[in-house]
DNA sequence: TATTAGTCAATAAT
DNA sequence: ATTATTGACTAATA
């Protein structure tokens, strides 16, 4: 309903403007968040926007959210992650997220033979001047960064680390989000459009550190003026820290077997009756509320998994002969637990149950396997041997639902009729959510490029691809869309020669791009060794 | 009242 | 030190 059809152009434009050149002047903002977590944040309901963002102009985010055009949540999270890693604000990992395999192999080989014989997948495809020098690699490999989700989440999104992690990992499609749920995405988009986004973050980081240092320093005399606002937990250290419970509910942790049992129950009946719930609770010796909560959470999370599958499938089209066996990310439903036979009835054993593991090669989405998920691609594999073997399905088992044997079954939930973006609003066709392997793009570094932001580096001739293109290019809503929305060119993958190889090369390029960027950075960040 | 959506926050996992 | 997972809450809906 909120989608005010038509006329969107105007609202979007105004919105865009605000977003685009919002007071270049500093940002100010109170911040000062680091010190006391005393923020009584939760309270912020609908009234003002006490959140992190400075109020500057009028519009509250909620208003922005209300008029925001459809956003590509998946693409946004993807870019956010890219920007953060590109700027050494990497998410996970202390060092670069470039796969340890690659780093290892590269360093090793470069050391051994500085200017030759480097055998790394994709290396040959790299233009000579794009090959990293050993120095670069060395520096890159030792670059360490601190910041991350917590900072970004609290500062930019006003959410806690865990929420951010979840959001970035499994964004729900825009049309399935409530107004509230869209807010974080709008904030992210706004942040992406902000030319100083990264700088601001780094500033925050610095400030936090400063505050931290100061705190330790001052420690000397002034003990901790910091109120131990903690509730009257009284440090009755007198006795063993046994006493105080109650106020600190222990957080229930379900045992794997219990989860198994619950999942089994779920498969039979996603919406158990109160009676069934009671039974389960009794059998498992759990509180009724726990069982209820579990079902709520499980349903919700299962649903989400379906969403992402939907997104990936859709965006990935089947065009290219892209390798990805896909099927479903290894993670898929929280079924990972796998058997865990652990005694317990083998009854009904759906059979199967072999652990799947191993996503396809370079599994599209994060696999979970490698440490550095994303970039992990470059799987060393010493010899870059052509590996004649049937490159077909290297994956284990047949591709069939790797996870829970049955699961999937049919007990599917009420499945709302996939209401597509049906809503009347026909406009804003939203140029597909191409996953595009492209990289760059996100680099918001450049100042407002303004209209012809054709920038598009890497891509270059890629457009060669016959097929698509045609009219598409024309309509290009470069104007508004590009400003507030998703640039994102269609990822026309030029298959041709071994696409897998190209992919690897692209990945390498991306890694190198990051290394160079980090290495050339003057000195804003510290390089730790 | 039952469910879903969104989050938090403790704690697991890397 | 970070990121990921997940039981429990709080609103919003149906």
Automatic annotation (TrEMBL):
Endpoints of the signal sequence: none
Listed Low complexity bias regions: 319-336, 431-448, 461-477
Keywords: Coiled coil, DNA-binding, Homeobox, Nucleus, Repeat, Transcription, Transcription regulation
Cellular component, GO, one term: nucleus
Annotated region (Disordered), positions in chain: 1-54, 214-251, 315-477
Portion annotated as DNA-binding: 247-306
Domain CUT positions: 120-207
Keyword Coiled coil: yes
Domain Homeobox: residue ranges: 245-305
Keyword DNA-binding found: yes
Cell compartments where the protein resides: Nucleus
Comp. bias (Polar residues): 5-19
Family: Belongs to the CUT homeobox family.
Name of the protein: One cut domain family member
The species this protein was found in: Galemys pyrenaicus
Residues of the full protein shown: 175 to 703 of 703
